Amino acid sequence: MKDWEKLEVYIAERLKEVDPRCKRQKGSGNGMCKGDIKTNLPLHIECKQRSTKDIKISIETFEKLKSEIPLHCNKLPVLALENKDGKRYAVLELDDFLEIIIDVCRKR
Fold first, then answer.
1. Dist. CA 3–CA 30, nearest whole Å
2. Structural domain boundaries of the chain?
3. CATH number of 3-106
4. What distance in Å separates the CA atoms of residue 86 and residue 82, rounded to the nearest whole number?
5. Exposed, middle or buried, 11 (CB in 10 Å: 0-12/13-18/19+)?
6. In which element (H, E) is residue 7 found?
7. Dihedral of the CA atoms 88, 92, 97, 103 (nearest 10)?
8. Alpha-carbon span 87 to 72, nearest angstrom
9. Mean pLDDT, all residues of the chain
């Protein structure tokens, strides 16, 4: 299994705790299926594994991710990243992050 596949499997397995139907979207970059993780959660996830210690995020990559979300869909774009040391990160727009935090705190 390739390193980028391992990242996708890791995310899908973790998300199965709250969405049992969550799985990797095989061939996500090759056709009509967009996003690397298929989930009923309000997330549109693209995974990027890098063989370097530092990870650079291009605005074009994030904008492409956003453009793949169908209109009138409530999914949040999330860029999941892993560096050569196995450190993992999730990148999302600040307003989306703040909405999540505010929503969680209000439910307490």
1. 18
2. 3-106
3. 3.40.1350
4. 6
5. buried
6. helix 3-15
7. -90
8. 33
9. 92
User: CA-to-CA distance for 29 and 83, rounded, in angstroms?
Assistant: 20
List Cβ neighbours of 75 (8 Å cut-off, separation of 6 or more).
Answer: 42, 43, 44, 69
Question: Phi and psi (nearest 5°) for 20?
Answer: -60, -20
* β partners of residue 82: 49, 88
- Terminal-residue alpha carbon distance, the chain: 41
- Amino acid, single-letter form, for residue 12: A
* 62-104 tens-digit pLDDT: 999 999 998 888 899 999 999 999 999 999 999 999 999 999 9
